[in-house]
Write a structure and sequence with these properties.
- The protein is built from 13 helices and 14 strands.
- By secondary structure, the chain is α/β, with parallel strands linked by helices.
- It folds into two domains: 257 residues, Rossmann fold (3-Layer(aba) Sandwich); 80 residues, Four Helix Bundle (Hemerythrin (Met), subunit A), CATH 1.20.120.
- The strands form four sheets. A five-stranded parallel β-sheet has the order 5-4-3-10-11, sandwiched between helices. Strands 6-7-8-9 form a four-stranded antiparallel β-sheet.
- β1 and β2 form a beta hairpin.
- The longest helix has 19 residues.
- It is globular and about 75 Å long.
- It starts with 19 loop residues before the first strand and ends with a helix.
Length: 409
């Protein structure tokens, strides 16, 4: 599966800062020093309704991570998956009487278009669950053969007790885990499981549903969590720098994925930091496909909204915050974009060297995009009120905003 084209990232004078970011597993900030190649895995979409503003907010956060690392002159090895076979996708296809593969391809193509328009840097590997199945099957067999997994009526389940570190990502109690498991694709009430929290690794073929050759597992399809584990281990290995996604993935997805990987390898941890973006609401409720309260990036683009303004609307909120999309959020972003473009259109202006360092410091400090925006706002005010004599300043500001925040002025 191919990703989308990369926009050029302008080179800036000087060197960026090492990233300090909030780690869900430890509950506090960590400073990451990845070495010459930073490794990041971000969980991708299930392609049946893309790309809403909640998606865009999540991928904006991890695009900023990439940009901070690139500014330190590191390479970035970024991997993202597409869950192109799963119950919600199959259910949507059945509801709309369309082929599930066609639906997945259509929505993935739309996602690529939105990511390109928003200037999100693409992953080096963009891997679908279906194409990952040949690598998933041996992992499930290894877990089963080692005693870390077991069969139940043809299905294969992971035993959470096989990982002594289980619970170390979310730090939730058992009652909360059981509730979230039921809400987010698990089956804690199925009779015969060793532990209600045990997640499915391999689902035996069901009538009327797609299935693949699973070797000794029989025909079936993979569970949700093992998909990401197989892709991450194949392309990044253990101990990569960031496992990222929305905060609704903390449990069960990232908790279970970590345990799968740790049981497979005997190594800990799967990732040095677990980083999660907040949820976006509309009309007082979390934006979600099940509720149907979605604002789509593609719809905004069709209405003529500049993608740079959409990006500024996302950047106006700290990535870890839960926030609400409103018409005013978009109007504020459009007004900011106009001010900034007017400021950089002049032939000279106030010196921009200090501004570049302010943006760098803000983003290195747990991706504090609102502080970065405020710094550019102050420069734009000086430009409009007093101007300046530095002929290169507007160009420096324009390149810095593009390189570090992905906004083309």
């Amino acid at each position: 599966m191919h990703a989308w084209p990369a926009s050029e990232v302008p080179a800036l004078p000087g060197t960026g800062r090492d990233l300090r970011i909030h780690d869900t597993a430890t509950g506090g900030p960590v400073t990451l020093d990845p070495g010459p190649v930073a490794r990041i895995y971000v969980c991708g979409i299930t392609p049946y309704d893309a790309t809403h503003i909640g998606h865009a907010a999540t991928y904006n956060a991890f695009d900023l991570v990439q940009r901070v690392w690139l500014d330190t002159k590191r390479q970035v090895h970024y991997v993202q998956n597409v869950t192109d076979v799963d119950d919600p996708l199959l259910e949507r296809a059945a509801r709309d009487n369309v082929d599930w593969t066609a639906l997945a391809e259509q929505e993935t193509a739309l996602f690529r278009e939105d990511m390109t328009a928003l200037r999100m840097l693409p992953p080096r590997q963009y891997i679908g669950a279906v194409e990952a199945i040949p690598g998933i099957v041996p992992l499930v067999e290894r877990l089963r053969d080692s005693g870390a997994a077991y069969e139940l009526e043809g299905d294969v389940y992971f035993s959470v007790e096989a990982d002594p570190h289980f619970g170390g990502v979310s730090h939730l109690d058992v009652a909360a885990m059981r509730l979230l498991s039921a809400e987010r694709g698990g089956d804690p009430d199925r009779p015969g499981k060793k532990n209600p929290l045990d997640p499915m690794l391999w689902m035996a073929a069901r009538d009327g549903e797609p299935s693949w050759d699973g070797g000794s597992l029989g025909r079936g399809r993979p569970g949700w969590h093992i998909e990401c584990v197989a892709i991450a281990l194949d392309h990044l290995g253990m101990g990569f720098d960031i496992q990222g996604g929305g905060s609704d993935l903390v449990f069960p997805h990232h908790e279970m994925g970590a345990s799968h990987a740790q049981a497979l390898t005997g190594e800990f941890p799967m990732a040095k930091a677990y980083v999660h973006a907040g949820m976006v609401a509309l009309h007082g409720q979390k934006m979600s496909k099940s509720k149907g309260n979605l604002v789509f990036v593609s719809a905004l683009r069709r209405e003529g909204v500049d993608p740079a303004a959409i990006r500024l609307a996302l950047l106006a909120h700290h990535y870890r915050a839960d926030w609400e999309w409103t018409d005013q959020v978009l109007q504020d972003a459009l007004a900011r974009l106009d001010r900034w473009r007017a400021a950089v259109s002049r032939p000279d202006g106030p010196s921009a060297e200090a501004l570049v360092e302010e943006i760098r410091e803000a983003l290195a400090n747990d991706l504090d995009a609102p502080a970065a925006l405020a710094a550019v706002d102050r420069w734009a005010v000086l430009q409009s009120e007093r101007g300046g004599t530095d002929e290169g300043a507007p160009g420096v500001v324009s390149r810095a905003v593009d390189a570090l925040m992905g906004v083309a002025l």
